[in-house]
Amino acid sequence: MIDLEEQPVSIEGPVRLEGRLHRPAQARGGLVLAHPHPLYGGSMDNNVVAALARAGAGLGLAALRFNFRGVGLSEGVYDDGRGECLDLLAALDHLAGLGLTRLFLAAYSFGAWVAARTDFGSRSLAGSIWVAPPVGLLAIEPAEVRLRPGLILAGGRDAFCPAADLDRLLRGLGAGLRVERLERADHFFGGSEDWLRDRAADYLGRLVPAQP
Fold first, then answer.
1. In Å, how far are 97, 158, 177, 204 from 131, measured between CA atoms?
2. Which domains does the chain have, with CATH numbers?
3. Which residue, 7, 51, 118, 157, shows the most beta carbons closer than 10 Å to its own?
4. Which residues, in sequence order, are CB contacts of 36 under 8 Å at separation 6+?
5. Are 22 and 6 in contact (CB under 8 A)?
């Protein structure tokens, strides 16, 4: 298993956020990880978030996990997705401030919902992954998505991301979007972390430059 060798970091934004950063000496880019719902125990310590971070680390990316506002040591309180969009931008800006110009995003569940609602402005992402967007619980309107994901990963037994609702979202987002499903997995992907890591690494590996 890949050792993330993370260091604690403080992310400055509208509120100060707690994060952990894996930063290789010659990073080939940066990956921000967004965690599941804060009101249901979601945090950067989540198993899916860790698996996605390992995918990035294995490719030589700086991998930044962070807690949304009100989680762990992050300041502020839960803001129903509004302030969390600003938190996501602050995490991306933190990596950009380290001189990393090729940035990626991997967002799980509530994190994917936040990503779908975020206006990234002039920030350019080289690729993004949504894992189990919770379309059975939180609406994602395709017309409001400012940045389409390049890859969506989903479980076949996911009550929060039902196949019919996900397919409706995919039709709205348009053709050409890569989707991979693991039929045995539910929303939490317990025991399927290696599958997530490998699928994310395959997608990101096609986009990460050969040299820093």
1. 26, 11, 13, 14
2. 7-205 (3.40.50.1820)
3. 51
4. 42, 46, 48, 49, 108, 109, 110, 111
5. yes
Tokens of 148: 């389409």
Parallel, antiparallel, or unpaired for β 62-66 and 103-108? unpaired
> Rounded to an integer, what distance in angstroms lies between the CA atom of residue 22 and that of residue 18?
14
CA dihedral 145, 147, 153, 156 (to 10 degrees): 10
Q: Six-digit token pair at 130?
A: 């949504």
DSSP E strands in 109-175: the ranges are 125-131, 151-155
Is 120 in a helix, a strand, or coil? coil
